[in-house]
Amino acid sequence: MTPARVVVAGGGVTGLTVAFTVQQEAARLGAAVEVTVVDSARVPGGHARSVEDGGFVIETGPNGFLDNEPETLSLVRELGLEDRLVEANPEAKRRFIVRRGRLHQVPSSPQALLASTALSWKGKLRLLSEPFAASPPAFADETVFEFAERRLGGEAAETLVDTAVSGISAGDSKWLSMRSQFPILKQWEADHGSLLRAMFAQRRKSKGRTRLLSFDRGMGTLTTTLASRLGTRLRSGTTVTTIERHADAWRVHLADGTSVAATHVVFTTPAHKTSQILSVLDRELSAELASIPYSGLAVVALAYPKAAVPRPLDGYGYLVTRAEGMATMGVLWESSIFRGRAPDDAVMLRVFLGGALRPAVLDLDEEALLAVARSEVEQVLGITARPIQHWTFRWPAAIAQYTVGQDDRVRQIRARLALHPGLQVCGTAIDGVSFNQAIASAMRTGRCLAAGLAR
Q1: Which secondary structure element, helix H or strand E, spans residue 6, and what is its range?
Q2: 79, 111, 221, 336: most buried, per Cβ within 10 A?
């Protein structure tokens, strides 16, 4: 039997998971398949990599995932990595924001809201009146900020929601689509008429607390294991440049001058890169992909002697409100979140800078970027000592931004893809920006592809 040939463009966690899932499912179904993954980076994994240096474990991107989505845990089991999982420290449930130069703990429940200093009493009372908020405008794709202001009031929208959105997606809540970015909250509103009522209903139905998980040596454990399973089928250091259709197959051209024949091609690369590759094949599809913006960010990890930090790092970290005017979006207290991220006598912080609100930060040189990160961290935490080590990572196009109209864009993209049998696009450009959503998109694509090959 002649095996089907699948080429996956992109060696981040999405591309690696697609390839692994296709192989596993095809073998289970008795289908013959050869998979090739093409990635421009010399080290696969995309954003999900971990660096070990002098007793520190530094994440270049995400530092963990929630266990409330089954697909990621399913992948972990298939890779035999269950015994490598670690749970975040209980203290990590505490989250803080910087407002008016001070740290305020974010309320984790309606009851905790009353004692919180994050909002004024006027803001608290308006938030607690959320069940009586106005109904959504008919057929409108509200921005996240418009939704939050309508339901929670202006102060909560500015202080809590806008700040959280910047921390989660490096985005601007005044541009992002509520329907596309947080569909579950729109569903809660539709089902319960109130977010507060929905929260209480979810707590009654919950079978247990949601846990934040990672791996003993960082999130790179997952991507390096996936890459090792692919072996020579992973072609690093080159990219797909163009693809052509020939009868019932594809010819995939690479930047190193070679080409690969394929029956199926799956793009997991950022939308603007996929757009460039497909511009000759389908201009309309290319234009729709190019219309999805991305937000860039820089990550600066700072290590300090534990004795140099004057306050306890008893939480997950903090986010910075827009009104502070800082380049920093948020700071994670990494050594407090997971064990083993720093030596016992040190702490490690990761500073996230830039995003949609401060894009010019990425133009700073290394020295200036480090200076900004240090200054803003030390200002908030009162640190006067110099860091003993630091590490810097830049992601110019880190996170897709689901601006208003995203759902229409996705419909158009899927409609155009249907005109090209054997061509697929999956991942965070269209299927959700979280780590869990990337895994779920990849596994869904891999399983469907394998099932089709088996037929």
Answers
A1: strand 4-9
A2: 336
Beta carbons within 8 Å of 108's beta carbon, 6+ residues apart? 93, 95
- DSSP strands (E only) in 187-248: 212-215, 234-236, 240-246
Cβ atoms 14, 21 nearer than 8 A: no
| Nearest residue to 412 via CA among 239, 296, 275 | 275
Report yes or no: 437 and 169 within 8 Å, Cβ to Cβ: no
Task: Report residue 436's pLDDT band, with 50, 70 and 90 as the boundaries.
Answer: very high
Compute the distance between CA of residue 22 and CA of residue 7 in angstroms, rounded to an integer.
11
Crossing angle between the packed helical segments 435-454 and 13-29, to the nearest 10 degrees: 30
In this prediction the pTM is 0.95
Q: Is the pLDDT of residue 74 over 90?
A: yes
Q: What is the pLDDT of residues 193-232, one digit of tens each?
A: 999 999 888 877 776 778 999 999 999 999 999 999 999 9
Task: Return the beta strands (E) in 208-359 as ranges.
Answer: 212-215, 234-236, 240-246, 249-254, 259-262, 264-267, 294-305, 317-320, 328-332, 346-354
**Which pairing describes strands 234-236 and 212-215: parallel, antiparallel, or unpaired?**
unpaired
3-state secondary structure of 206: coil
C-alpha–C-alpha distance, residues 272 and 262, integer Å:
22
